[in-house]
Amino acid sequence: MLNLASIIHFHRREAGLSQVELAAMADVSRKVIQEIEAGRDTAAWRNVLAILAVLNIDLEPSGPLVDRWRQSASTTNPNSEL
User: Fold this and answer.
1) Looking at the whole model, is its pTM more than 0.90?
2) Which of 3, 8, 11, 80 sits 20 to 30 Å CA-CA off 56?
3) Would you say residue 5 has pLDDT above 80?
């Protein structure tokens, strides 16, 4: 099963970035990158989102209620992007 740690590690390596380079680009410490790639869950969500943005990784919500939520949100605000 894929997990976020392995996805980030794979994308970083494929992008040819070291942990230090990715950390600088995401404005986090190398330790944050190291801990995320090791699968530790100590990273702040804002740091994870910054890393995902640098690596051009999108998160797509899924689950049994997501479609219902999207329908509800689009009728509430039809001009929003979901």
Assistant:
1) no
2) 80
3) yes
